[in-house]
Design goal:
This protein has about 475 residues and is mainly alpha-helical. The chain is built from twelve helices and seven strands. The strands form three sheets. A three-stranded antiparallel β-sheet has the order 2-1-7. The protein has a two-stranded antiparallel sheet with strand order 3-4. Strand 1 and strand 2 form a beta hairpin. Helix 2 (about 105-125) packs antiparallel against helix 3 (about 135-165) and helix 5 (about 200-220) runs antiparallel to helix 6 (about 225-265). The longest helix has about 40 residues, at about 225-265. It is globular and about 65 Å long. About 45% of the residues are buried. The chain binds fe (ii) ion (2 copies). One fe (ii) ion binds near residues 120 and 214.
Length: about 475
């Protein structure tokens, strides 16, 4: 169980380590200042029907109730320790998992933890203004739930920094509260986390695509030989699932509403669809292309000696490492990667050890493919002959083998001129953003009401009805 009588709720017996406890209690007010500054705008007095983690068991860990967000019990929750756990891959395979940071992997681990930790507050910052344009009280509650949990994920990483990395760790923990998404002087570390999230379509796309990158990164860190990191990430994953649910069902409901309107009115031209105040499927496709491509960049270069080193040293594993049936060393294995060669995209094989970023990206692509398939079933059911597709993995990339090339969504290498002529067929234009923004002119918060451009969900949160008062504004 988690101890909520402590100033910092935790299941790591924080009270036994006074120095650490004091250091974290010192960081806590700085965190709250950040929340007041960069958390959801004007939300501080709202009472929100939130779930709070009560224990770390996979089922029944959550409790629902009204909470003022600044009073949310952010804390430190790790999956329980398995004393038999081993390092499951790389040269240390078979050794007991590390309970302290091995000296030689210290800076690598610190960098991985800081990079993961940095994305958590970044997304809260990106979403700060969205409460003003929510399509329903249900959705408002969901974004707040995502925000407080991203805040908790920051806590999770900061705990590791404080507990295991001494003074450097404390400095990094402070810096995590200093950077700001999109700031020119002191931006967040990764590109996608400096992009604005200006509207709810972008928010749902972000939670579907970019939060899911978080899931895959957490899954591979959950395999780490450094046991406290693995256990932290395992518990974060249980929270992450809800974020991706919000994204997938959010886009699904937008599609459903658009299709209903198209059918009722027997229209399919995007301008006719827009005239009805819903989001045309073509605009959805362009948003999808954008969010998919900036997220694919987060996996890094196809061929990476860093990724190979992380693996060999036992620091970061593959997605579902222990379920894979191979030697977990990858000394002989090969893996295909794509590149542009003489104006065409070709595939070549490279040592699998160096292609671990690409492999994780491919695991991710398989999962988003099934999500897009579920969206397409909504369109198909409505009898509309349009299908959403994932763009080619080289489309609109800035990192790796495709950086510097112009690739069409169907995977052709384009000239600069062709790209310039056609890019807004594929990516959201200023006009697209302006149109979507025009739908977000105010918030919809009457009980049980939903904005015109989105269908209600199938059911409420925690079996509550759709007209439940998910947020009390006070
Ligand atoms: Fe997160
Ligand atoms: Fe998340």
């Amino acid at each position: 169980m988690i101890d909520y009588t402590e100033k910092i709720p935790n299941n790591v017996d924080l009270g036994r380590d006074r120095v650490l406890q004091r250091a974290l209690e010192h960081w806590q007010p700085a965190y709250l200042n950040w929340w007041y500054d960069m958390g959801p705008n004007e939300s501080h007095a709202y009472e929100v029907y939130l779930r709070t983690a009560m224990n770390v068991e996979p089922d029944g860990w959550a409790q629902f109730g009204y909470v003022r967000m600044p009073e949310y019990r952010w804390g430190i929750f790790l999956q329980p320790q398995d004393s038999n756990r081993q390092v499951n891959f790389g040269v240390h395979k078979g050794e007991p998992a590390w309970q302290e940071v091995p000296g030689e992997h210290r800076s690598t681990l610190r960098r991985l933890i800081v990079t993961q930790g940095d994305t958590e507050p970044a997304s809260v910052e990106q979403q700060k203004m969205l409460g003003f344009s929510c399509p329903s009280m249900y959705d408002l509650r969901n974004i707040f739930q995502v925000n407080v949990e991203e805040g908790r994920h920051l806590w999770a990483m900061v705990y590791l920094l404080h507990r295991y990395f001494g003074r450097d760790g404390r400095e990094e923990a402070e810096a995590l509260l200093g950077r700001r998404s999109g700031d020119l002087d002191n931006p967040r570390i990764l590109g996608a986390f400096n992009e604005p999230t200006p509207d709810w379509l972008a928010f749902f796309m972000f939670t579907f695509f970019t939060d899911r990158d978080g899931k895959f990164q957490l899954c591979s860190l959950a395999e780490s030989g450094f046991d406290p990191l693995a256990r932290t990430c395992r518990f974060m994953l249980t929270e992450e699932a809800h974020h991706m649910f919000v994204g997938e069902t959010g886009i699904g409901r937008i599609i459903q509403r658009t299709c209903e309107v198209m059918k009722e009115n027997k229209i399919d031209d995007p301008s006719d669809v827009r005239a009805m105040g819903v989001i045309d499927l073509q605009t959805l496709q362009r948003y999808l292309n954008f969010h998919c491509s900036v997220t694919l960049d987060l996996y890094g270069s196809e061929v990476s000696s860093n990724a190979a080193n992380y693996y060999t040293s036992g620091v970061k594993g593959r997605f579902e490492e222990t379920k894979i049936n191979d030697d977990h060393l990858l000394t002989e294995a090969e893996y295909p990667v794509s590149e542009v060669f003489e104006g065409k995209i070709r595939t070549k094989t490279v040592p699998a050890l160096t292609a671990l970023n690409e492999r994780l990206r491919d695991d991710y692509i398989r999962e988003i493919e099934s999500g897009v398939g579920r969206w397409n079933r909504v369109i198909e059911k409505a009898g509309i002959p349009f299908r959403l597709t994932l763009p080619h993995k080289g489309f609109h990339r800035e990192i790796g083998n495709f950086a510097g090339f112009k690739i069409s969504p169907d995977g052709r290498v384009l000239t600069e001129e062709e790209w310039n002529k056609r890019q807004y067929e594929w990516l959201p234009s200023k006009q697209d953003h302006a149109y979507v923004q025009s739908l977000m002119s105010g918030r919809v918060v009457e009980l049980g009401k939903f904005a015109n451009w989105i269908a209600p969900p199938r059911s409420g949160i925690n079996n509550q009805p759709l007209n439940f008062e998910y947020v009390r504004f006070n």
